[in-house]
Amino acid sequence: LISLSKGLDNLTSLTRFNLFGCSSLTSLPNGLDNVISLTIFNLYKYLI
Q1: Which InterPro entries match (predicted)?
Q2: Kind and range of the H or E element at 48?
Q3: Distance in angstroms (rounded) separating the CA atoms of residues 31 and 48
Q4: What is the DSSP letter of 25?
Q5: 18: nearest Cα among 38, 42, 1
Q6: How many separate domains does the chain show?
Q7: CA angle 19, 20, 22 (to 5 degrees)
Q8: Dihedral sign of CA atoms 35, 17, 8, 28 in order
Q9: What is the dihedral of CA 28, 34, 35, 40, to 10 degrees?
Q10: Most buried of 1, 16, 24, 35, CB within 10 angstroms?
Q11: Residue 41: its pLDDT value, please?
Q12: 8 Å CB contact between 34 and 11
C-alpha cells in the first residue's frame, strides 16, 4: 500500500504537469487518455 500511495502521488503530479503543458483543449483529452492508461498500467504492476 505504501508503493500504491506513492504511485498515486506520481500520478497526480504528472496530471498537474500535463494540465500545465496542455495549451490547447485538443491536446487535453489526449493527455487524460495517457494518464488513464498509465493508471491502468500501474494498477497491473501493483496487483502482480
Answers
A1: LRR_dom_sf (IPR032675)
A2: none
A3: 26
A4: T
A5: 38
A6: 1
A7: 65
A8: negative
A9: 150
A10: 35
A11: 76
A12: no
Q: Which residues constitute the domain of residue 13?
A: 2-47
Q: What angle do CA 20, 25, 30 make, to 5 degrees?
A: 80
How far is 40 from 48, CA to CA, in rounded Å? 12
Residue type, 18: N
In this structure, what DSSP letter does residue 23 have?
Answer: -
Residue 20: CB partners within 8 Å, gap ≥ 6?
none
Residues 5-46: tens digit of each pLDDT: 676 777 776 666 665 555 555 555 666 777 777 777 777 776
Amino acid at 12: T
Grid coordinates standing for 37? Answer: 492508461
